[in-house]
Amino acid sequence: MKSTVRVIQEKKQIALVAHDNCKKHLLEWVKTHEDELSRHELYATGTTGNIISKSTSLAIHPMISGPLGGDQQLGAMISEKRIDMMVFFWDPLTSVPHDPDVKALLRISAVWNIPVAFNRASADFMIKSPLISQASEIVIPDYDAYLAERL
């Protein structure tokens, strides 16, 4: 498939997701970076979003719970270019019943070249990058060209 460039604006659309065993760690990370995160638009799966909303002053756009379709909602938003980056604290040592949904979310993030942090170290690198507060370009699939070739 051909590629094109997408400009991610200064104000990022950030998805926040955490497996049950990692919700506490994500909340700690969010509290540490609350000031920077307040400059961006935040989305989160159900339980994670509720925990963050109740524990911080951040405005969160909630999805439904991940196992009930929230992971898929975020995946759709990524493919619609409505999510710019994702912080997903996942537990690689615990199997979850909605594992196919998690894999689909990670796959669509890779397809659309969305930066994803899987743990505190990678999330720290992303939030402290100069790119967090400036416009930047990413290469994405050129879906319009793909459709034009099929007509």
Automatic annotation (TrEMBL):
One of its GO terms (molecular function) is methylglyoxal synthase activity. It is an enzyme of class 4 (lyase). One of its GO terms (biological process) is methylglyoxal biosynthetic process. The active site is at D71. CDD domains: MGS. The keyword RNA-binding does not apply. Residues 6-151 form the MGS-like domain. GO terms for cellular component: cytosol. Keywords: Lyase. Its EC number is 4.2.3.3. Substrate binds at H19, K23, T45, G46, T47, T48, S65, G66, H98. It holds the Pfam family MGS. It catalyses: dihydroxyacetone phosphate = methylglyoxal + phosphate. Catalyzes the formation of methylglyoxal from dihydroxyacetone phosphate. Belongs to the methylglyoxal synthase family. This is Methylglyoxal synthase. The lineage of its organism: Bacteria, Pseudomonadati, Pseudomonadota, Gammaproteobacteria, Vibrionales. The gene is mgsA.
